[in-house]
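hey can u check if this looks right to u? its 297 residues, i copy pasted from the old doc so theres a chance i mangled smth
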Amino acid sequence: MTRISNSWTFHKRNRFRYSDQEEVESMSRIRSSFEVARSVRFVLVLGLALAVCAPMALSQHKPAFVDVFLFGLTTVPDTALSAIFQATADLDAEEAPELLIETYFIDPRLVLNADPYNADLSDSAFGVTAIRFDLEPPPDAEPWIGISEPLPKSVLRPFGVSYIGERAGVIIQPVLAPDEAASVEPIDPNSDLISGYLEAAGTMSSEMLDAVREVLDSLNEGSAEEIRRFIADPRGEFQGMDVFFPSRGFRLIALDVSLALESGALGFSAVLSGLGTFSEGFAVVGDKGVTVIEPAF
């Protein structure tokens, strides 16, 4: 597979049970919602916090997955995404210092908020999870990560949509099919990175994202054997629950969170005491690992 970054054009794909027209409409709705939110950013944080968090406080009703996703995108500091993309590039470099790698995958906020990144990711607003790909479990240990790869020669993009529970999680990484990659350009960390996330979310309907949450909630309440099956074949397990991620359009990264913690492959920068984080978030996917940002409540 080729790892690239997007030129921020919208790429149509064939979807199983999700037509091109539905994809365009989904993308349009998400982009419109975000643009309205960004245009009134000075009242947005309060408004979205009430819209997203109040239903949880008053009842067991959960806000839509896409609403939490947009809440996180809209409240993240302008400098933070650029900083995470730059840190991801530095971590992936062949000459990356081992101390940087080790520190990042223990406490990612500590690295991101320090020079030279200065991400300004507050512990009252975001949880930050860093998951390392290049640590192999011992020979007799269960795998903590499972990846359903896309079609050969697909083009990977670093924009991920994530759902990380206490025991199981997934990062959904939309990709470009081999015949769609002609116009690809490298990513500039100082460019409009938000557009990449809006495009990534636009490849899925709101109902599909909510179905992802239902599957993961079931896994987090289920048995260890169910999580093992999910790690072994994330695409197949989703398909068994009538949630379809064609190999033409998606790479899926499944996580056994407990085993990742035990293996030292997962580091988490927690929020302040008394706060929680949504399981829904967005991710920056690199070669050595992935960084997940989850809004606090």
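The chain has one domain: 2-295.
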